[in-house]
Each structure stands twice: as C-alpha cells, then as structure tokens.
# Entry
Amino acid sequence: MNILSKIVIPLFVVFVVFYGFTKKVNIYDAFLDGAKEGLQISFNIFPNIIAMVFAINIFLDSNFVYEILNVFEGLLMNFGIPLDILPMAILRPISGTATLAIMNDIFINFGPDSYAGRLASVLQGCTDTTIYVLALYFGSIGVKKIRYSLVVGLIADLIGIVVAFILTAMFF
Amino acid sequence: MVSYIWFFLIVVGIVYSFLTGNISVINESILTNGKDALELMLSIFPVIVLWSGIMKIAEEAGMLKKFAKILEPILSKLFPSVPKYNPALGFIASNIAANMMGLGSAATPFGLKAMTELQKINDKKDTASVPMITFLVLNTAGVTIVPTTVLALRIAHGSVNPSEIILPGAIATFCSCIGAVTIDYFIRKRGKN
# Structure
C-alpha cells in the first residue's frame, strides 16, 4: 500500500504530460498559462491565510479549547484520539484556511509523521468546507432558500470525519 | 458567516487569556504570527502554482471533457430532472474531476458555471432546486484523490513518506460521498411521495 501511495502522483503527472503531448497540446505553454493562474489564486488567498493564522493563533494560544476539551479527554483517550485534533474536526466544515492553520500547528508541535499529524492530514483531505461552499455557490446565483442542503452536507462531513478517525487507526 | 467565526476566535481567545492571566502569551502570539502565516504561505504556494500548470495541460488536452463523458451515465442517474445534453452536466463532471485532483480552486469556476446552468432550468429562482442540492452535496463531500495542499505541507515539515495519507484519505472521502448521495436520494424519494 505504501508503494501505491508513492506512485500515484508520478503516474498522474506522466499520464497528463504524455496525454497532452500526444494530443499536440503545447504542453510547456499550457503549463505556464496554468501556473500564472495559480499565482493569481495564491495572491488572492494570501490575505485569507494571514487573517486566519492570526485568529487561530490567538484562539489556540489562549488554551481555551484545550481546557474545555480536557473534560472529554478520558473519553477521547479510550478511542486513542489526540486532543489537539478536535478543534480541527469542529472547524473543518466552516473554514479550510482555519483548519490548514491548525494542521500546520500540529505539524510544528508533533511532526507530520506523528499519529496526530497523520490524522490531521487525512481529515484535511477528506472533507470540504461545506458552509463556505454553500454560501459561495448559492450566493453566486441569488438563491436564498437552501432547504435541506446544509443538513445533508454536514452529515456527510460527519461521516467523513468518523471514517477518517477509524481509517487512521487502522492504517497507522 | 466567516466574519462570525473570526470574531469568535479572536474575542474568545483574548478575553479568556485576560481572565486566566495569560495575556503575555497572546501579546507574543500577535507579534510573531505574521511569520507563521508567511511560512505557511511559502509552503503551499509553489504547489498551487505547479498543479495549476499541470491541470491546464489536462484541460487543454481535453482530459476533463473525456472524464465528463465517462461520468455521464452516473450523472444522468443522479440528476434525473436535468435534460440529457444540458451543459450543466459537463460542468458538474469537470468540477468533480478537478476536486478529485485536489484542485479546489480550479474546481470552483466549473462549479459556479454549473450553478448558473441549473438556475436557468429552476422554477423558483430564490429557492434551491433538487439538482442544485444534489450537486452541492456531491461537491462538499467530493472525492479527493490527491490532496495537494496537505502533501505540500507534509513535505515542508519533513515527512518521511508524505503521500502515505493518500489512500486512507481517498477511502474516507469516498465514504462521505456515498453517504451524502444516499441521504440526498432518500430525501428526494420521500419528497415525491
């Protein structure tokens, strides 16, 4: 399984480059065009990153979450879930940048190959920012009554989070 | 919505530190966190640029369109009320394809176009239609195979095997996707009766 995860990306890259080449796409120019768009996107999200790291750092450094969550520590320990992961699971549906900042924090404190680090990685990759997506997509076409979409989206997130916990315990 | 969260994080953090006599920690945190933000940015931004480049090749070679064709039979089952050759389905497929590659930012333009097309066949313009909800549920629970930013950050922090999280991540996202589609399906069914 480790080998599989190591070849996914190289395989994907060679496939795209090869496919583009055989379709006579000017692959180098296409790459540069896309990269320029990526640069623009990066510039656009930079203020978001600054804003979220700022707020998350204040929040986490105040120790508020940890002292509140300490109540649940015994329960979490039974399942082998590190306490530091909980703020991430809670904020995941709301803000991708916020959880990215928390994940960064976990990597700094425990390292990416620690159990908490791996769990954070799986969590970040497996669910999306439901509330943000709904606000953006419905907002863009002026829909105001969103009906049952939020509930279903959040249940799906919950399923993803629970499965992420179980799988991380199984894999590592 | 994000404003409320931002407000909550900052106010709770600062007030709580005041009450527990920890305010010097916060002082230091505010003064140094620009560096944290910059480091985080530096580690993810080359990856965004790189993958946007790779995906542009895929797009220009028509890979996304091919992918949309493969997904067509599944999509017509998920969106029975959308006419078969409606452009919305193509945008939805492209959106899902881009999400799978972990390119949320590349997926967004396709998603917004899909919503515009779905709005054209929506009877009540201020209310979410059934295919819109199915699409967004699918989108927010979307299957991610290559979570690019996560990988970038793991590499930046010196992980021994940064891609080891791909497989469990893919399975987890697949489960939440199946869950979302199932729940959505049953709500739709019940709504009809």
